[in-house]
Write a structure and sequence with these properties.
There is one protein chain. This protein is of the alpha+beta class and about 180 residues long. Helices cover about 20% and strands about 25% of the residues. It has four helices and eleven strands. A six-stranded antiparallel sheet has the order 5-6-10-9-8-7, with no helix packed on it. A three-stranded antiparallel sheet has the order 4-3-11. Strands 1-2 form a two-stranded antiparallel ribbon. It is globular, with a radius of gyration of 17 Å. The protein starts with 15 loop residues before the first strand and ends with a helix.
Length: about 180
């Protein structure tokens, strides 16, 4: 079933209650934010641009982010907390100026908020672990992806751990014997 229900326009998306997607009480518990920091802690840990996007739901300018045109294999983590959110396997070239994915790594790793700001009706995507703003998800744009969805995500919200880098880290962590 689509996260949008019938449509993000007109009817409220199925499963959206109080601004966040929920399907059951069990999912409510799974959606609880596990990384909780004060505003002062976030400001100290993040750059001003990261803070503006991740904590204040800002948007970086198109075609300026680090990953909008990257084709490196790996896993994209939340820049604020390190949660694994997307992989290069689901990344595609949408030519919109931001990294685009047709699906998250796992549905429980992100959460959705019905966003009616700026006179638009959209679905905001947030990190389920720390509640940081990632971007928005759109459906029915004709990209021909398996889900017919485009997760339009700010580069500054992500950190790419390249496949080769992750493999090297794992080898270094093995006990020598």
């Amino acid at each position: 079933m689509s996260i949008f229900g019938n449509s993000i326009f007109g009817n409220k998306a199925a499963g959206i209650r109080g601004g966040t997607q929920h399907d059951s009480a069990q999912e409510d518990a799974a959606q609880e934010v596990t990384v909780q920091k004060s505003d002062a802690q976030w400001r100290e840990e993040l750059t001003p641009e990261e803070y503006q996007v991740l904590r204040q739901a800002g948007t970086e300018r198109p075609y300026t982010g680090e990953y909008w045109d990257t084709h490196t294999e790996g896993v994209y983590q939340c820049r604020a907390c390190g949660a694994e959110l997307f992989t290069s396997n689901e990344k595609f070239d949408s030519h919109c100026g931001w990294p685009s994915f047709w699906s998250p790594l796992a549905e429980g790793n992100v959460r959705y908020i019905h966003d009616r700001t700026l006179g638009m009706d959209r679905i905001e995507v947030r990190c389920a672990s720390c509640d940081s703003h990632l971007g928005h998800v759109f459906e029915g744009e004709g990209y021909g992806t398996p889900t017919d969805q485009r997760y339009c995500i700010n580069s500054v919200s992500l950190r790419l751990v390249a496949k080769d880098e992750a493999r090297n880290d794992a080898q270094e962590a093995k006990p020598q014997g």
